[in-house]
Design a protein that fits this description.
The structure is a homodimer. The first copy, chain A, has two domains: about 180 residues, 3-Layer(bba) Sandwich (FAD/NAD(P)-binding domain), CATH 3.50.50.60; about 140 residues, FAD/NAD(P)-binding domain (3-Layer(bba) Sandwich), CATH 3.50.50.60. The first copy, chain A, contains nine helices and 25 strands. In chain A, the strands form eight sheets. In chain A, strands 5-2-1-9-21-20 form a six-stranded mixed beta sheet, covered by helices on one side. In chain A, a hairpin with a 2-residue loop joins strand 23 and strand 24. The first copy, chain A, is globular. The interface between A and B is large, with 88 and 88 residues.
Chain lengths: ~425, ~425
Amino acid sequence: MSDKRVVIIGGGFGGLTAARSLGDLETVLIDRTNHHLFQPLLYQVATAALAPGDIAWPLRTLLRGYPHLRVVMDEVEAIDREARLVRLRDSDAIPFDALIVAPGARHAYFGHEGWEQFAPGLKTLTDAVRLRENMLLAFEEAERRRVATGIHDRLTFVIVGGGPTGVELAGALAEIGRKAMGPDFPALHLENMSIILVEGGPRILPGFSPDLSATAAAALASKGVTLMLNSRVSEVRADGVVIGGDVIRSTNIIWAAGNTASPLLASLGIARDQAGRIPVLPDLSIPGDPWIFVIGDAAHCAGRDGNPLPGLAPVAMQQGHYVARLIREGIAAEQRRPFAYADRGTLATIGRAQAVVQLGSWHFSGLLAWLLWCVVHIFFLIGFRSRVRVMAEWIWYYFTFKPGAKIIYTRTRQSGEEGRTPPADSPGSGSRA
Amino acid sequence: MSDKRVVIIGGGFGGLTAARSLGDLETVLIDRTNHHLFQPLLYQVATAALAPGDIAWPLRTLLRGYPHLRVVMDEVEAIDREARLVRLRDSDAIPFDALIVAPGARHAYFGHEGWEQFAPGLKTLTDAVRLRENMLLAFEEAERRRVATGIHDRLTFVIVGGGPTGVELAGALAEIGRKAMGPDFPALHLENMSIILVEGGPRILPGFSPDLSATAAAALASKGVTLMLNSRVSEVRADGVVIGGDVIRSTNIIWAAGNTASPLLASLGIARDQAGRIPVLPDLSIPGDPWIFVIGDAAHCAGRDGNPLPGLAPVAMQQGHYVARLIREGIAAEQRRPFAYADRGTLATIGRAQAVVQLGSWHFSGLLAWLLWCVVHIFFLIGFRSRVRVMAEWIWYYFTFKPGAKIIYTRTRQSGEEGRTPPADSPGSGSRA
């Protein structure tokens, strides 16, 4: 099987792990961006704690030393199962004998896509930089209004979704807003800034045990975050959100309320679940096509308890490793052992010196959990350089409360040229090259 | 005079220095962005060597501990000399008794503003990130085309303007393109990539002595940069530049051929020089208005030799310090000693281990000059944190040839949402807040 041509769609945790595990098979890795992104720390870019370059690495640089592997920066338009081709927007279609589909997910608005412009989500570096600048500009506007009118109107941030992303954003916003921004905005009374975390279910962090949810809720409350449980957003507008008939006025709404897998999956011609994921067989292949695999956030893969595995980096990485081995060793469908996820625990941080950890039946929280969280995330960062940079940032922030990335540059107060970055299809963009 | 209200327009080297030298006078500093930018290293962001956050700092953070000073992020629309008001786009007009105008300059196209879309310049962080992504996308496109057609078409970069910015860009591009990008793009023959530096005059670095210009030219040539002297660009198009009737095909054109001072200066109602600068009196005030000063790149201030002082950080900083003292001490126009620029030398780097230094009559170049350049720039960077970060980046790059910021995120290969950053006036921008 060593003449097998393998194509991987997506350079996330699953795709990158697979690419590195395929040995000397001729492989093409396709990604829309030029980098692998460490999504678990994306919220820290969105809250100005880390810089984009601290958590992203060019795929080509990561995959130096894999002579059989080619990286293509392009967008996949369709997967042609009959012709065994992956069709791209800008390049010729790429033939495959084995295909690993790992395109990830976007945040979902459940049919209310119009809400995105008022409540952006957090999946890409562009999302994170946009949220960061929205946040920083909100403080600037509040200060400007305060000086103009003399009125203190409280800054209100609304985060929709009580999963790890929402919780981590709320915790970081509370800290940065109350502590780090204070000295920069002396005219504002940041102690009565309000951060509201809206969760549809009865508790935050539903993926964790109830006791850890309670711990996290208490920790957020102590940071001054308002929790709204069993609350559903019925409308998102330019000036706020509507919840159960009440309007919460805010121009800083962040969407962390759910994911939908990449629309690309439609071209596989298989019925998807309500989250847009492909229900895969126990060997992560798709029904009737043993050499096409779907992994990561794009796959609906039942775990031991029958529920689909969560969209976590370890799941995607283990799946990437698993399917790479099946392909590398050319294991026939009937001889494959089912994929089994080895759960090494889940962590979520609520802020400085506060996190929750769930290792099987062992639950704990507080400073120790936070230190473990730091160690684990530093460990999984790629490369000595990033580890040093991020660790240094965290230590610096821990002691100084000065986040390192409070720069606004994609937008200025001027409506002129330097206030914009041209869209990909505009002149000046590399697509002209 | 301690009840004097001072307004400073611009948070660059001149404005920031003035702000820090005004003592306890009530001061307002206005800037369109939220940060002070270390422009001398901007070319390193444009060539992926440094990250934006490494060379920019929030003005509010820099000016903590100045209780009499207020920072306003807004755009100045006009200076009303009669009413003694600075009119802003989003806030109420701000009254002043003394005004320091330090809005800086933009790159100039000498009446060919249409060229900017094909040949962007380098003044802001947004410019730098845009150039960086154009460069990285150009390599991606070349690789894609190479694979699709089998043809090696050489990557051509054209830099218009042989001043320090153009020279530093050309040197950095040659290094990064030939050495750092090679391993990432095995299919490309980067040794025949071409970098063309176009200069209208007879030599590059005209601000330096002829011998240093010759040294710089030789150093660039040794890096494989093609110099075109006495050459004027007659047209810039999407597919290249026209020079003396010949067309140089390139989709990577960078404009470093001249500056024009901020259009805001028009509202002073004083005739400006051909570079849009205000001819100031020896005390840097404007004719007929002893308490309005123009400094930095916006001022046409004659030096000892009668020529206008160059647009350098030290000039702006010394001017900022000088006018702050006049205002702080309330020195009447007739008692003012003229501003005298103390030239502590000029430096320009041509790349790794190669720079030119001019200290009065003392000229030297090579490794020693480069080390001095590094030391001086590290020294003038603001804050321990940035110094450590930038020094670490340089040491890392010196040994590994892996620049630290090769991430493309404001544009992806997808034409979808995450391919763009919204313009300042769009929903989702803080101007809604």
